[in-house]
Design goal:
Strand content of chain B: over 45%
Shape of chain A: globular
Helix content of chain B: under 10%
Distance between the termini of chain A: 37 Å
Order of helices and strands of chain B: EEEEEEEEEEEE
Structural class of chain A: mainly beta
Strand content of chain A: over 45%
Shape of chain B: globular
Largest sheet of chain B: 6 strands, mixed
Distance between the termini of chain B: 41 Å
Number of helices of chain A: 0
Radius of gyration of chain B: 14 Å
Order of helices and strands of chain A: EEEEEEEEEEE
Oligomer: heterodimer
Structural class of chain B: mainly beta
Number of strands of chain A: 11
């Protein structure tokens, strides 16, 4: 069974631009969560989707948004990029909502210049 | 509020020596606890989890962890470390029973000396 796939793996963007990251969960998994990882703040929860509905959102500004499609694939979007948005963005896939194992993708490394 | 503390930012052990990584959590109910490992530039790999039952849980790669409710701890152990175990280790707690949100500790970087 294929794992969690995140694309692209690396991105370089300029301040003020917007970016869209993609996550394809494990086949059959319907829950997708996103995390931001930075050296200073560590791993922080962004949002969680299940069956195309956002179930939970972390403490991030409105520039960060996401969605989930009917095939469970998820995208997150960051608008008006700031230097501080440079991070590794990780997607996690679960078979259902709640405390089951979360399987993580390799992440997308975003650099804002 | 739930939180996770990993007191050791960096640990160095010799290859073949035993390892214990500490994790303390703050959670109001029965916690759901996880240990993940991350190699440089990679995602997180689940080592083991605790949901209920036996407080000593076995994971992959020869790791185990013990849940101690009285100490609010979930320490990760390995009897003999291999050079390939060098990585960053994260302890996490599930935020609640009806969400997949994880709260992570700051991580412990393990260096293995030959």
């Amino acid at each position: 069974k294929a794992g969690v796939t995140q694309t692209p793996r690396y991105l370089i963007k300029t301040r003020g631009q917007q970016v869209t990251l993609s996550c394809s969960p494990i086949s059959g998994h319907r829950s997708v969560s996103w995390y931001q990882q930075t050296p200073g703040q560590g791993l922080q929860f962004l949002f969680e989707y299940f069956s195309e509905t956002q179930r939970n959102k972390g403490n991030f500004p409105g520039r960060f948004s996401g969605r989930q499609f009917s095939n469970s694939r998820s995208e997150m979007n960051v608008s008006t990029l700031e230097l501080g948005d440079s991070a590794l963005y990780l997607c996690a896939s679960r078979s259902r909502v709640g405390n089951t194992e979360a399987f993580f993708g390799q992440g997308t490394r975003l650099t804002v210049v | 509020a739930q939180s996770v503390t990993q007191p050791d930012i960096h640990i160095t052990v010799s290859e073949g020596a035993s390892l214990e990584l500490r994790c303390n959590y703050s959670y109001g109910a029965t916690p759901y606890l996880f240990w993940y490992v991350q190699s440089p530039g990679q995602g997180l790999q689940l080592l083991l989890k605790y949901f209920s039952g036996d407080t000593l849980v076995q994971g992959i790669k020869g790791f185990e962890a013990e849940f101690k409710r009285s100490q609010s701890s979930f320490n990760l152990r390995k009897p003999s470390v291999h050079w390939s175990d060098a990585a960053e280790y994260f302890c996490a707690v599930g935020a609640s029973s009806n969400t997949g949100k994880l709260i992570f500790g700051q991580g412990t970087t393990l260096q293995v000396k030959p």
